[in-house]
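Notebook entry, structure prediction.
Reason for the run: the old model in the group folder had no record of what sequence produced it. Starting over properly, with the input documented here first.
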Amino acid sequence: MLGGGSITLFHVRGIKVTVDWSWFIVLFLVILFMANFFEELLGEGGTRPFLFGVLSAVGFFGSILLHEFGHAVMARRNGIGISSIQLWIFGGMARMDREADSPKTELQVALAGPAVTLAIVVVLTAVGSAAIGWTEFREAALQETRSNASALMALLAWLASINLLVLVFNLLPAFPMDGGRVARAIAWARSGNRNQATRFAANLGRFFAYLFIAGGLALTFTGALFFGVWLALIGMVINGSARGAAMQTAITSRIGDVRVADVMDREPVAIPGELSVEQALDEYFLRYRWPWFPVVDAAYRFLGLVQRDRADEVPEVSRASSQVSDLVDPDRGLFVRDDTPLDALLSNQNLRRLGALMAVDSDGRLSGVITIEQVGRALRDATVR
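New structure, fully documented this time:
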């Protein structure tokens, strides 16, 4: 990432949509480029070409956002939490709480975004072809200013063509792009080893990254400065991400078969769900001074977390009659199975946010708590072997 902070636009079903400052660069360039095209198409300047330029930018980034929501919806269906979707200079990124736990899940999540983009291309092409005919729509998609298409049809044609370009480019097997994740899923299914598959996909990603950089430099020297620099920058970003994935895999491979149960605290302090809020405040929050506690039912099954702030919000007159179970946050991303490989927690956003995750057995009973310090200690021990 180019960094520098992000701006929250809105929330959709608990998913925060943000934009990086670099996104505004692309927004400006798309508006400028498309406004110039519509000036030539319409044969006029002023407000209308600029308006269609803005609509082009909105449609383009709306398509990118739908693509990322495709990933997000499929990830959630497979029990993977999505903390946010961020738009930035090179597109979008859905931030998952953890990695996929099987090749099938990896493949489904990776292909969900391109499937949405393909649907956008098909729908826009069908609408445009039905309205003005395929030949006219194709000319408009190629941005032929001699096309007799209206400005609206030209807009739809451009959105169809740019989404087709995004689809083809994104399916190249260059990890961590979607095509690279598909390659990793296939290699994972064939080898049965996620780390080995990640190394293969990362090396493939770096190969394509060098191709992009070389192609970008070649375009720059032939006069296509903007597109050359753009392609070279994409190659540099892919190379950095692929190299980071390879380095992480080298570390996680040293952990071997270490599971959460091997390093977790097996005696977590938990609050019974039937306890009153008043008792919870007196016997747990005031005693231990912790900001949250796991909550369990009578069979010691994990119900969720209760936050100190939630307990404090209950009116004092109601605390004796209110149960802790009414205040729990049942977010599934707050716990992991105690037989989960430890390396699966390295990209877990909730572990970083809370500093700990609850561990449960196969029956959902609370069996321990795994902290970020314990994961870090296991990693340090692995690196000195």
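Summary: The chain is about 60% helix and 15% strand.
The old model has been moved to the deprecated folder.
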